[in-house]
């Protein structure tokens, strides 16, 4: 075996082994979730007396959804004299006029609602929340992003959980207003379901740390201020504050049965922008807090789970390396007798990939017991898109490691709720050019690998190669097509009936 062949296989199996470890961790999360399945916060009697609550609504250029948000918040079932609403607007476009008009309308109806506008965006979302908190009157702070539509009973169901003075945060599960709009929105809904149901559910029920998701949650104000407040040095200020607060002993609760509907991105570039921000911010938080967590007096189980949580996005770097190595590794194995190598290769790939399928299938079964088998048909595409995001999220990880500062790029939302709604001619469309071309090139690369495997009868690798092929072609081509015209063809062809 040549030096090149030895290096290729060593690197390939090293990367695959690490990915397999994280794959086995997904199995562990499912196990923990099922083991503690009955350990769910139940309903509590209302607090007496009812506390004052400040609802903070951070927005930036959200002209299509801000009015819907304010209407939903002001419709919540809570005494008006105890409810303060802050519209924290950093917008630079028509959103300002729309938001101000909506605020005045609700003020005329007797709501205690204020419009606070900043012009410098210092600290981005964290800075807006910090500025609002300085003038807030509430003992508790509920936060909703612009694309959310909180239910009327949201405060009535979250606030009683704070009867325990150790509770610092109550997080609701995200719902998906437009999940059935397209294949892309369907996959996003399933990805978010897995994160909330199994990750949040498993961690919270097992007594481990989990994070506030930046929206659809209620904080005890004392917990925010005691943990150092909203800080601006990461793009995931919610994750950062969550770990700082829990290190101080604050208890977090996740309510899986309380759903806060929200709009998921309908365009691929908007989805990528959101994933890039989350990946970069998580690595920034990892670099900032993981040493403190590992050096704390927390139980080893809490530390271990925090390690897997905060380092998970490093896997995207490994996915890129794996993508480059798969074809040459397959070629080397074929020429040296690949059957023997598959004894190691396939089990590792199964650990790394089938754990993902199992994770999301269990989640869908938990949420939709009557229809989960029908929904399961989207799991292969979910896995493929997760692979297709490797370039996008690996770039985010590298930026975080280099300390590259970037603006908080909010995810465009268009007020999409029904199949008939359109977004093509609306503002806020995002453009990407180089990255989608790289993704398409990788898709073509894996197409060649698929033909090579077929020509040489290496059928055991085909399912994995096709996942990579479809993932990179889908994410790359959809980015290019959606930003390349206004005929709406792509959306018409990917509607889920």
Structural account:
This protein is an alpha/beta fold and 497 residues long. The chain has 2 domains: 3-33 and 314-488, no CATH class; 50-267, Spore Coat Polysaccharide Biosynthesis Protein SpsA, Chain A (Alpha-Beta Complex). 56% of the residues lie in helices and 9% in strands. It has 18 helices and 7 strands. A 7-stranded mixed beta sheet has the order 3-2-1-4-6-5-7, sandwiched between helices. It is globular and about 75 Å long.
Radius of gyration: 23 Å
CATH superfamily of the largest domain: Spore Coat Polysaccharide Biosynthesis Protein SpsA, Chain A
What form results from the Cα inertia axes? globular
Query: What is the typical, i.e. mean, pLDDT?
Result: 92
Give a count of the beta strands, DSSP E runs of length 2 or more.
7
Helical residue percent band: 55-70%
* Reported CATH architecture of the largest domain: Alpha-Beta Complex
What's the N-to-C terminus distance?
53 Å
Main β-sheet: number of strands, strand sense, barrel status? 7 strands, mixed
* Name of the top-level CATH class of the largest domain: Alpha Beta
Class per helix and strand makeup: alpha/beta
């Amino acid at each position: 075996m040549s030096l090149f062949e030895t290096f290729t296989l060593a690197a390939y199996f090293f990367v695959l082994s690490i990915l397999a470890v994280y794959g086995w961790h997904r199995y562990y999360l499912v196990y923990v979730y099922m083991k503690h399945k009955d350990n769910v916060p139940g309903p509590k009697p209302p607090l007496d007396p009812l506390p004052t609550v400040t609802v903070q609504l951070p927005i930036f250029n959200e002209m299509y959804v801000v009015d819907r948000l304010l209407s939903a918040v002001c419709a919540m079932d809570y005494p008006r004299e105890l409810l303060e609403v802050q519209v924290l607007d950093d917008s630079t476009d028509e959103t300002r006029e729309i938001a101000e008009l909506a605020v005045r309308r609700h003020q005329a109806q007797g709501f205690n609602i204020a419009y606070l506008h900043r012009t410098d965006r210092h600290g981005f979302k964290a800075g807006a929340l910090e500025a609002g908190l300085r003038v807030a009157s509430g003992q508790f702070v509920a936060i909703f992003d612009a694309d959310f539509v909180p239910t009327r009973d949201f405060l009535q169901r979250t606030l009683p959980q704070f009867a325990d003075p150790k509770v610092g945060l109550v997080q609701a599960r995200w719902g998906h207003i437009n999940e059935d709009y397209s294949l892309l929105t369907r996959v996003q809904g399933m990805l978010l379901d897995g994160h909330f149901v199994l990750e949040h559910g498993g961690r919270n029920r097992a007594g481990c740390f989990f994070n506030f998701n930046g929206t659809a949650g209620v904080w005890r104000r004392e917990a925010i201020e005691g943990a150092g407040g909203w800080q601006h040095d990461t793009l995931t200020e919610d994750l950062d504050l969550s770990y700082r607060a829990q290190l101080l002993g604050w208890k977090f609760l996740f309510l899986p049965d309380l759903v806060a509907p929200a709009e998921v991105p309908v365009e691929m570039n908007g989805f990528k922008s959101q994933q890039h921000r989350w990946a970069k911010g998580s690595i920034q938080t990892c670099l900032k807090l993981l040493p403190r967590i590992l050096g704390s007096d927390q139980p080893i189980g809490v530390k271990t789970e925090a390690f897997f949580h905060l380092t998970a996005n490093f896997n995207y770097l490994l996915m890129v390396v794996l993508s480059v190595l798969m074809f040459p590794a397959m070629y080397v194995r074929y020429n040296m007798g690949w059957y023997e190598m598959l004894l190691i290769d396939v089990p590792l790939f199964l650990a790394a990939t089938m754990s993902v399928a199992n994770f999301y299938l269990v989640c869908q079964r938990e949420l939709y017991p009557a229809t989960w088998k029908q929904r399961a048909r989207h799991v292969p595409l979910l896995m493929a898109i997760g692979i297709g995001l490797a370039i996008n999220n690996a770039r985010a990880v590298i930026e975080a490691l280099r300390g590259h500062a970037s603006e908080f790029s909010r995810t465009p939302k268009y007020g999409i709720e029904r199949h008939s709604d359109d977004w093509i001619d609306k503002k806020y469309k995002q453009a990407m050019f180089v990255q989608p071309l790289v993704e398409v090139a990788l898709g073509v690369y894996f197409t060649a690998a698929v033909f090579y495997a077929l020509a040489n009868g290496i059928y055991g690798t085909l399912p994995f190669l096709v996942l990579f092929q479809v993932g990179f072609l889908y994410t790359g081509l959809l980015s290019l097509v959606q930003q390349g015209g206004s005929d709406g063809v792509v959306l018409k062809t990917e509607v889920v009936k």
